[in-house]
What we know:
TIM Barrel
Amino acid sequence: MSSHLRLGVNIDHVATIRNARGGDHPDPWRAVQIVEQAGGDGITIHLREDRRHIRDADLDAVIQRTRLPVNLEMAATEEMLAIALRHRPHAACIVPERREERTTEGGLDAAGLHNQLAPMVARLNEAGVRVSLFIEPDPRQIEAAIWLGAPVVELHTGKYAHATGPALADELKRIADAAALAARNGIEPHAGHGLTFDNVGPIAAIPQLAELNIGHFLIGEAIFIGLEASIREMRACMDAARGSMRGKA
């Protein structure tokens, strides 16, 4: 596995702040430029059905102007499939989505939704869009991703982020085992949700993981230290964890 763990920065909540008051400020495109300057490896944006943060015009601007690969998070709907096929981002991560939720809660049930997902995954693959499934670190969901032909899975780290005591070690093991299982079956494992400076290290040290997608925490920290500093600090935490991993190899 590569020693470089990619960092995808989710800029959704720059748009959340903008939309709270209306108008054009703060502009998500400025966040993209800072991610580029700070050494981020990709841009992640979630165009939700209700457009509560990222809007269609934001997606247009980011895909047309950034030099970084764009990872479009999307619900498993015909509307979002059509948008992804029209824009052809580098990657499309299919996520569960409910209008009443504040943020994505849990992973996609790829196993239970096989018949709905199969044609979408096939069409995205055919269009050259790298498909990712945002799933729980569960062997059943990994198996579903294999059957669906998804080249990437993103493992939901939300339970790990909120766990304490013995449950923390259990959740970390679940993620590590799922990443290893995915990699053994030719699927590239990513991870994300709820990761911070304090908890990212053990996740970043999982050798099979190729990418972490982090957004809310980085945008929140940017209020206090600036977005570039926030991204650079996260990059340093990830690199330190990968360095310690190499030292144990």
